[in-house]
Fold:
Amino acid sequence: MRKKQMYKIAYLTCTGSIPSRSADAVCVMNMCCALASRGAAVDLIIPRGQALSLDELGCAGTLWDFYGLPPNFSIRYLYDPFKRCPAAIRRNGYAFLALCGAVLAGARMINARQIELALTAARFGTPFVFECHNFLKPSGSRLFPRFIETMNRPRCRGRVVTTTQAGRKSFAEAGVPESRIAVLPNGADPQRHEGLPARQDLRERLGLPAAGAIVCFSGSLYPGRGIEHIMYCAERFRDIFFLIIGGSPDDMEPYRAMAARNSLRNMRFTGHIPATALPGWLAAADIVLMPYTSASAHAYMSPMKMFDYLAAGKTIIAADFPVVREVLRHDHNAVLVEADSAECLARGLQWALDNPGAAAAMAARARSDAAQYAWQLRAERYLSFVRAARS
Structure:
C-alpha cells in the first residue's frame, strides 16, 4: 500500500551535476530517495546544463540505473539565464527562480544546499532547512552575517542541518540558536553490501590477485587525500596489492607515472566506477584506507567513503582527526593513525596484517555500526527535526 504523502519538499541546489561522478551527487540522490521512501513528496530542482551524459559516464541504462535507485521522486532541470553572469549575481538570480518554481509547484518546505537559496526561502517566508556539509563555505560568504541575523528572528522558519558536531559547534558559536541546528552525518546503504558473491569469486571477476592481502582506497584523488602516503606503503609492502578506486584520468596520471618510476607493480588505478559497483570492489579487499592529510577540508568533513567502509565490514585505517572521531573509534571500528605521516599509516597497516583476528573483530564492529548511518535512518531523523520545527 502506498504511503500517505506527508508534505512536499523541494530539494534545491545551485551547483547540482546529476548525473555526474561526484560524491555529492550520490549523497543528494540517496537522500532524496530516502525522504521519498519515508512518505515525503520530493522535487529535486537543479540547474540545467551542468550534468554529464549517461554515455560519458559509461551507463547503458537510465539515470536511476546509474545510481541504483528507484524513481520515487521527481527531478527538474531548471533553465538558468544567469549562468554567464558573475557568481554572486548568478547564484542570487538562480535562487529566486528556483524558489519561485518550488513554491508554485506547492512545496511546503525547502531544503537549501547553498546560503543564497536559504536566504531567498527566508524572504519568501517559506520554511527551509539549510543543509551545510562544510561550514567554511557559508562562513566565507558576504551573506553570512545576514544569514545569522535571519536565523535569530523570532518569525524565522529556518533550520540548519550539518553533517558533523564540529559544524554544529561552529554555527552555534557564530550565533545560530542551538535549537535550530541538527547533526545528521552522511550515510550509506548497508543492504548493498549484503548478498555479494564470495571474495575469491569477486577477485576473479574483477581481475584482482587471487592470493594475498588487498588494500583499497576509494574516492577522489584531490590534494589532501593522502595518495602519496599510500604509494609509500605500496613501496614498502611489495607483497601486498594496493587498489585505488576513483579519480579522473588527469588526477590519476601523476600517480600512475610515479608508480611506474618506482616499479610499483602491486598497484592498480581503476578510475571512476559507478556507485552501484563499489560494494563489490570493497568486498574483494581486506583493508581499506582513509589517509586524509591536513591539506584537506578535514575540520568539517563527513566523507562518503567512511560510511561505505563501515558498511563493507572491512578493517579501516584512517587519519586521526577530531571530526573523524565522531564516527570512527580507535580499536573499536577502526585503526586511527597520526595524520600527515606515511610512516604512521604504514605502522597501522602492519598492525592489521600482523593481527588478523583483532582486525576481523574490528571489521565486524564496523559493519554493525554502519546500521545507524543508513540513508533511511538519516531521512527519518531529518523529517523528525522538520516536524519538530513546524510544531
